[in-house]
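Minimal example, chain plus flavin-adenine dinucleotide.
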Amino acid sequence: MTRIAVVGGGPSGLSLAKLLTERGARDITIFEAGPRPGGKSWTLYDGAAVAEMGTCYTTLSHWVVKRWMREKGIQLERNGRVLFDGTGFMKYVNQGGGPPFAVQALRYFWDGADLRRRLAKPNPSQDTINEAAMSILDWLRVRKLPKVELFLHRIITIMGYGFLDETPAVQAHRWCDIILFVSGALNQLHMPVEGWSEFWRRLAEDLDVRLNCPVSRIERNGDGVWLTSPEGREAFDWVVCAMPLDEFGQLVETPTDAEKFVNQSVQWQGYTTALVASDNWFEDWHVEGYSDTVVPGARLGRLVGARRETYEEELGGHLYVTGQLSRGLTQDELREIAMAELEAKGVNVTNFVLQKSWKYFAQYSMDAVRNGLLGLMRDMQGEQNTWYTGSTFSFEAVSHISNFNARLAKEMQRRSADRPATRTQPQ
Ligand SMILES: Cc1cc2nc3c(=O)[nH]c(=O)nc-3n(C[C@H](O)[C@H](O)[C@H](O)COP(=O)(O)OP(=O)(O)OC[C@H]3O[C@@H](n4cnc5c(N)ncnc54)[C@H](O)[C@@H]3O)c2cc1C
């Protein structure tokens, strides 16, 4: 039996362990540094308030997670109305020129699916790789899709996946695919009534999760892996990196060349959420976004959008979660910007309840994509008895991470079956 250590008890570590368990694996230990499972899925519970400070929506792509939500008795509530600049989102999109949106969207999805198909081949051509490395803005402009460009301001930038001139086409297409589009069109966006934290807590009950157990050192050789944590030094056959790779690289005794290359090739963006209470902000819709803060070149830190959560008298009234792209800014600076912008919008803040800054969205450098980053990330799986998951290797969304893990678990099971039965046990 293959003994597996998973470092990180966020959505990637938990979902991979659950999927491996469903495939019959029995010896998996998850090490989680913090006091609760779920990582960037974090819900604030306060009185009647259930506010998502991290992960919020499920879409039609969350099929793995939704199956577990049903199993664990988690209910989903449909998203309400979305406004952009105080008006319907499609009104904003239709300000872009050219053919009707449906025609432009078809071209976007058709060419995007073709790019992904070509990239999935064992040896994609350099032309395909160069196309994947283009900024999504250039990719759209070559195809003259101005309405899709405005559409992606909300789908990519408000969600914290970068300004369109910075995000490589490969990452934009991973996220904004036809399934996401259909999810939006049919309003198949939901949030868990009991909260994401409760979902992961229930899921973790089925698994061997050690909380408050940060891994501090990882030694590897051809035979296996040794992990040091507050519980001592233990031997495993395989280790899974389910935490940011740059931090994982600091734990391993000798990072591989591939690990070093990937680390140099990604830049973490930041996203900050704040929970504010107000007695005069919007009540008739659920989510709103602002165009002036999401166009390429806009100043970082400005409010990109807000979502209305529950009402909680004790916390000051109606609660809203705001979003800010926050790379390089301090919490104090972000709070100051948020308060100034809310004041300019005429929002009376009765309580600034909480602020959370997240290490969010590992954006690929376009040069690195051109120089083979994607192939390298595929080939390094399983090398040095190490497997990699999480947002760097799939995308910064629970849907994409768990779908990626479904394929990874299959590959790990296949390689586990191929391992020699008489191998040397790690000492
Ligand atoms: C504001 C916000 C909104 C979002 N909205 C959505 C959404 O609507 N839908 C969606 O699908 N996704 C959403 N996401 C994205 C989703 O939350 C992330 O993609 C997901 O949490 C990433 O999971 P992960 O396991 O890779 O990383 P993380 O969630 O970061 O988990 C990594 C875990 O590793 C642990 N760790 C770190 N170092 C160590 C160590 N040395 N030893 C042991 N453990 C360690 C950390 O404590 C952490 O728990 C959102 C995220 C944010 C921040």
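The radius of gyration is 22 Å. The mean pLDDT is 95.
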